[in-house]
Amino acid sequence: MSRTDIEAVEEVNTAFYEAMERGDFDALSALWLDDEISCVHPGWPVLTGRGEVLRSYALIMSHTDYIQFFLTDTKVSVIADTAVVTCTENILSGGPAEEGQDLGPLVGQLVVATNVFRRTSEGWRLWSHHGSPVLTESDEDEDEASS
């Protein structure tokens, strides 16, 4: 494992989140493998296959006017032609604006993510993305209060 592999994987991982922020579906699509891929968005079932996974991103992008990712706790492991990135996605997003406003209400969310990449002749490509919501203390308090 060379430092350059880790740097290359970090670059592709960053490009994935930047494509989401820009709403650039073509750039996002180019980062995924062409064969069997999988994706789990927080609260969604497992999506498999390029068509299903990419449709989910098109749907998310079409319903999200603003999204920004602040990645923390990022760790990269590379073994042969496979790389795993774990990180915390600190997400700030806004949906469609109310009439007469520029942006809908902003919502913050914490998601822990695992991104698996495979080395190809074109470079590192996403094989799998799995995001799970992080429950904050206020979420737990609300759950306890409602039970």
UniProtKB/TrEMBL annotation:
Pfam family name, one: SnoaL_3
SnoaL-like domain: residues covered: 9-134
InterPro entries linked: NTF2-like_dom_sf (IPR032710), SnoaL-like (IPR037401)
UniProt superkingdom: Bacteria
Membrane spanning stretches: none
PANTHER family assigned to the protein according to its UniProt record, in alphabetical order: NUCLEAR TRANSPORT FACTOR 2 (NTF2) FAMILY PROTEIN
Protein name in UniProt: DUF4440 domain-containing protein
